[in-house]
């Protein structure tokens, strides 16, 4: 189905609240944290090409504009009528499809609390569980008024900061309940249920995130999460569109990029720091993932960041 980008926003509706609050609390292009734990905003004023990033277990809502996420070569388009949900940490390519200075792309992400999901499942009262495999750990759901309403109330708390510690956890719990009642419930259940294969893969991913620089023996990691090696391989690839070794490589390369960009490590030092024994192999694999050699990529990113900083400084001076 072709996504629609002309969703009508009614004044006073939860959708209008999302547009108003995100628009008033963001400017230019960027990602913005909020005083509410796990909640962040996004704003883009032009379409953007796919960018490599890691998406944590989250629900991502579009208030205005449209976006598309690529996972394992499969596209997941979403806009104000549909939300994107990820049930575990997934490497993706993310691109903004519809945005302009007059009508910027505005969105939010709320990190999912898997423990809260498990508690709600244990309490019962939810629709019967379906045991069919859900495949990828990412999906598109319908952004119904029932789901949007608590998000509107959550964002309105930003104007009442003293109420955030008391009311935000209650509203977030309602959001998790609504998601377990939505068309994406089965995807969340497979990760939150402690006896499920998805939960075991999530535990393996947690281990990889902490130990990406260590040599990886897939059979030992499979045993760690109490799965046979063939079953582990199958479910890991099914949920992440990657093998465990590819996932580790992705983590290493992105951490090396961060080290070079933020901590000013040279290429060889970054390669050794994340577990590579050969800087030349590191450079080849970095180029395959990011499209350019590491030294050139980091130089371009720094130049872009400096230009953006100078532009913001000019705008502030002009405003003054």
From TrEMBL:
GO terms for molecular function: DNA-binding transcription factor activity; sequence-specific DNA binding. Gene3D superfamilies: Homeodomain-like. Residues 202-300 form the HTH araC/xylS-type domain. It holds the Pfam family AraC_N. InterPro entries: Homeodomain-like_sf (IPR009057), HTH_AraC (IPR018060), HTH_AraC-typ_CS (IPR018062), Tscrpt_reg_HTH_AraC_N (IPR009594). Signal peptide: none annotated. The keyword Secreted does not apply. The keyword Cell membrane does not apply. Keywords: DNA-binding, Transcription, Transcription regulation. PANTHER family: ARAC-FAMILY TRANSCRIPTIONAL REGULATOR, TRANSCRIPTIONAL REGULATORY PROTEIN. This is AraC family transcriptional regulator. The lineage of its organism: Bacteria, Pseudomonadati, Pseudomonadota, Betaproteobacteria, Rhodocyclales.
